[in-house]
Amino acid sequence: MTLKWIPARDAAASLGVSERTLQRWRKNNFLKVGIHWRRKFPSSNSPLLYQIELCEKAMSDACARDAKSLELAKAFNA
Q1: In contact, 59 and 65? CB cutoff 8 Å
Q2: Structural domains in the chain plus CATH codes
Q3: With b meaning 16 or more CB within 10 Å and e meaning fewer, what string describes 35-57?
Q4: Distance between CA 62 and CA 44 in Å, rounded?
Q5: pLDDT of residue 62
């Protein structure tokens, strides 16, 4: 399977988040350079591109992890 790199605006729309959220996720290393995102050209002014399938997987993994943490906290407090 070949993964396709898509522009930031399209990635944000597909993921249902803002481009600002994508920026925060990059800054917090939730989305990793070279895996989830990259620059179109090797220049700091170059547009960002995203691997949408890998971004979706990162989001799904984070949601599953957070739900499990909430359940463990609920059981601990019971």
Answers
A1: no
A2: 5-77 (1.10.1660.60)
A3: ebbeeeeeeeeeebbbbbeebee
A4: 29
A5: 85
Please state at what angle helix 52-77 crosses helix 8-15, rounded to 10 degrees.
40
Contact 5, 53 (CB under 8 A): no
Please, are residues 11 and 52 in contact by the beta-carbon 8 Å criterion? yes
What are the tens digits of pLDDT across the range 16-68? 999 999 999 999 999 999 999 999 999 999 999 999 999 999 999 888 766 55
If one counts every other C-beta atom within 10 angstroms of the C-beta of residue 60, the result is 10
Q: What is the pTM of this model?
A: 0.77
Q: C-alpha 71: how far from its chain's center?
A: 24
